[in-house]
Amino acid sequence: MSFVIGIDVGTSGTKIVALNEDGKVVAAVTKNYDLNSPKPGWAEQNPLDWKRAVFEGLSEICKKINGREVRSIGLTGQMHGSVFLDAEGEVLYPAILWCDQRTAKQCEKISEIVGEEKLIQMVSNPALTGFTAPKILWLRDEEPEIYKKVKCVLLPKDYIRYELTGEFATDVADASGTLLFDVKNRCWHRELLNLLEIPIDWLPKAYEGPEITGKIKPSIAEQLHLSTDTVVVAGGGDQAAGGIGCGVVHSGIISASLGTSGVVFAFSEHVHTDPKGRVHTFCHSAPGAWHVMGVMLSAGGSLQWFRNKLCQEEIAKSKETGVDPYEYITEAAGKIPPGSNGLIFLPYLTGERTPHKDPYARSAFIGLSLMHGKAEMARAVLEGVAFGMRDSIEIMKDMGIPIKEVRISGGGARSSLWRQIMADICKVPMVVINVDEGPAFGAALLASISAGMFSSLSEACEKIIRELYRVEPNQQNVEEYDFYYQEYKSAYLSLAPTFRRIGKKIEG
Fold this sequence. Notes:
508 residues; alpha+beta; 7-stranded mixed beta sheet; 18 helices; globular
């Protein structure tokens, strides 16, 4: 029996899954670690924590299966993060993560040097605080002594690749999120690198998702009880790998992930670029394809904030009963009518990317009155996140991307109430599939191609992934939500100048 493994180096932890030759998950493990925020708006992690999690997780997986029979490993993980290495391959500075907001000045500088329109023409995306390029410039501006020692810049999953194989490599999907990659031609953009004075030799070679990038180092193979013939494929950024894991390998099928962030992901056979840069256009992990992606920074994160800050009663009750506190929260929210009795929530707890590109955006409850209680606020949070996801879907429709169904996943998708709210607000059927292992599963599917288990990603998805059930929009709720969606959009536009003035004041 042969196996493949998918590794997802996530923000809150690393998930590892093993698949057998039939594509069935036969073992899985998750190892958690902390996120550090030493200053407001900062988000960092120690890459050595990822390494520890991966090595411990692989060791456990190989005890559950025969590690010597693992033929291929696929890598995925949080996108955009920067790992700065010196000439000896040692980490120089904490990894600056995708949700970090410290680089607003560097984004403005990039747009000034290149020009906003030209930048989108060059790399298909605008300068955003989450991307990798402004993080490199930030290190140059704020930590010049450390910057002088930099010899390589890797994305999170690619640091793990280096530790496993000794190879400096990435994939075209993850590289697309650096703001340094020519998405149309699937290579590093030399002209842009020259304009920003970033050495191209700092960047790893970019491969297509299923391509082999190296073999496990003998010392690591012995340590983890793997074969020295085990290969590691390029893989993909977590959203591209998640799209593979949801079967988004054909036009018309899109995915919506309600994790900490919220992501709407659409397959494309051609390069579709929004001239306003409201959604991202990246290479797909499927060879020769692209994807269009909208990202909101606080989707499930908004409900998590609500739980942690305002639901101590539900948390205490959960400890007594063993019932997840989210179930108590959504049960109460389900008793409130659509529109939350006139209460609207803006889900911008950590700024926003789609469609506003605004690091200063903040959350707000609009219309709060004496009649509103915790249940209305909970439902407003669920609806506000769905409004944010609809923003991406509307932009994709305007770009001519066909949308027949949405395959919904992530922690938030477990809520039947939230699934119905998503269907009603987005006006598209929400489909639940038989696979819920996230990006790690997609990374394993990418590895399965090099292992010869399937001839293509399309074949793998067709044989493994199937629909369990779908949620159709409720037409009566659709009409109600259309009104509140317009008010939701208007509320942000009215408050954006206030958000910016407050943000500037806090920055000093």
